[in-house]
């Protein structure tokens, strides 16, 4: 049985190149986890997700608790067998839904009472129950239940929210069933207030976790505030544990977070944007529905090795698929976007290993600033 552990194999400034060892296989970091909220990365098969280079995916406790229920997934052999993904899976605890579904929940010291967005039925989620659900799912990485503090929040509001999350984190630690190859991550909260973030990080380190996430960012605050909080927070987290920035994000934000010592990311952007016709490329973005692509024979991104670009699918054809509402269009752009994100993190790993991260970052931002290629 594999043990859960993290090894840093190279450093460049604050950035780290590492490897996370788990019961379901290794994860090379910096790593991007495609989001499979309801036990599926929307629109593509698990084998295709793996072909993009992804080693680990994310699913969601709240959504799977409602449908089909954790007990059903457990009876069917656990989440890995259920969704046909043999690799590591991280499950978000439902803390984000504490914020995003504020109109459907009641919060108290014990936990959260939700009204299901599916059928209106009432459900109770406590720290202990959140951990139990993730255990039933057979999540490789379990996340503590927290309150994802909304933005904007006053310092007093953020402090009250953070302190509740820290009490819940201690309860999650007590409830977690320790076994080889499985880990439990704590989540730093505190909104945009450095002193609160420092207190949160210290509380989590004292409790002791297998990894540490930075939550409550990318929820509407200015980008500069997010980066400032990372500058303040990341150095306070243990150097020998993985660091996970939840819900981020845009390629440029991933690059800047890696520079600051973050190891793991997740975000719905590559899949959601793929379904709506936006492709991420080396020179920024391509809105494939725009008429300028109608007769363009070029791939989305010259030199991209993904199955879409290397497979010969022209911009003109992709434009046609979206204009015709053909389902293949969203599938192909989803594949490309996920491969683009995996290519980005692979290049970041290589740059850190070579001690050339700052050179890579400068080239990355210069290419992004150019914008998409002009039409032929």
Topology (SSEs and partners):
Layout: E1 5-12, E2 15-22, E3 25-29, E4 31-34, H1 46-51, E5 57-60, H2 61-66, H3 70-75, H4 79-83, E6 89-92, H5 95-100, E7 105-107, E8 112-115, E9 122-125, H6 127-137, E10 141-143, H7 155-175, E11 183-188, H8 194-207, E12 211-214, H9 223-233, E13 243-245, H10 251-259, E14 264-267, H11 269-276, E15 278-281, E16 284-287, H12 315-323, H13 328-354, H14 357-370
Parallel strand pairs: 4-14, 5-6, 6-10, 10-11, 11-12, 12-13, 13-14
Antiparallel strand pairs: 1-2, 2-3, 7-8, 8-9, 15-16
Helix pairs in contact: 6-7, 7-8, 10-13, 10-14, 11-13, 12-13, 13-14
Overview of the structural elements:
- The protein starts with a strand and ends in a 6-residue tail after the last helix.
- The strands form 4 sheets. Strands 4-14-13-12-11-10-6-5 form an 8-stranded parallel sheet. Strands 1-2-3 form a 3-stranded antiparallel sheet. Strands 7-8-9 form a 3-stranded antiparallel sheet.
- The radius of gyration is 20 Å and the shape is globular.
- The protein has helices spanning 46-51, 61-66, 70-75, 79-83, 95-100, 127-137, 155-175, 194-207, 223-233, 251-259, 269-276, 315-323, 328-354, 357-370, and strands spanning 5-12, 15-22, 25-29, 31-34, 57-60, 89-92, 105-107, 112-115, 122-125, 141-143, 183-188, 211-214, 243-245, 264-267, 278-281, 284-287.
- Helix 7 packs parallel to helix 8 (194-207) and helix 10 (251-259) runs parallel beside helix 13.
- By secondary structure, the chain is an alpha/beta fold.
- The longest helix has 27 residues, at 328-354.
- The protein has 2 domains: 5-267, TIM Barrel (Alpha-Beta Barrel), CATH 3.20.20; 275-370, no CATH class.
- The model has no long low-confidence stretch (mean pLDDT 96).
């Amino acid at each position: 049985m594999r043990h859960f552990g993290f090894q840093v194999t190279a450093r460049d400034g604050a950035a780290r190149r590492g490897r996370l060892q788990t019961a379901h296989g290794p994860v090379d970091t910096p790593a991007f986890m495609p989001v499979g909220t309801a036990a599926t990365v929307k629109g593509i098969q698990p084998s295709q997700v793996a072909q993009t280079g992804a080693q680990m995916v994310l699913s969601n406790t709240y959504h799977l608790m409602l449908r089909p229920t954790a007990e059903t997934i457990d009876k069917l052999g656990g989440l890995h067998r259920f969704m046909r993904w043999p690799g590591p899976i991280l499950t978000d605890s439902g803390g984000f839904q504490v914020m995003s579904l504020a109109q459907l929940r009641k919060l108290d010291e014990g936990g959260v009472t939700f009204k299901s967005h599916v059928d209106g039925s009432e459900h109770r989620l406590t720290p202990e129950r959140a951990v139990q659900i993730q255990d039933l799912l057979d999540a490789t990485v379990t996340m503590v239940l927290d309150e994802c503090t909304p933005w904007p929040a006053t310092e007093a509001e953020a402090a009250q929210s953070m302190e509740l999350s820290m009490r819940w984190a201690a309860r999650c630690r007590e409830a977690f069933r320790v076994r080889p190859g499985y880990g439990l991550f704590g989540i730093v909260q505190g909104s945009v207030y450095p002193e609160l973030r420092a207190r949160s990080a210290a509380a989590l380190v004292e409790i002791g976790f297998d990894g540490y996430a930075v939550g409550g960012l990318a929820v509407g605050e200015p980008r500069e505030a997010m980066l400032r909080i990372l500058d303040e927070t990341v150095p306070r987290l243990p150097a020998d544990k993985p660091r996970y920035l939840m819900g981020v994000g845009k390629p440029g934000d991933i690059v800047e977070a890696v520079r600051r010592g973050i190891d793991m990311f997740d975000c719905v952007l590559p899949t959601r944007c793929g379904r709506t016709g936006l492709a991420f490329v080396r020179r920024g973005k391509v809105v494939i529905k725009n008429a300028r692509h109608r007769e363009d024979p070029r791939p989305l991104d010259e030199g991209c090795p993904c199955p879409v670009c290397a497979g010969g699918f022209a911009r003109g054809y992709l434009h046609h698929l979206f204009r015709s509402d053909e389902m293949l269009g969203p599938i192909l752009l989803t594949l490309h976007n996920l491969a683009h994100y995996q290519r980005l993190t692979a290049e970041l790993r290589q740059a850190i290993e070579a001690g050339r991260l700052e050179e890579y970052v400068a080239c990355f931002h210069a290419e992004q600033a150019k914008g998409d290629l002009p039409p032929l």
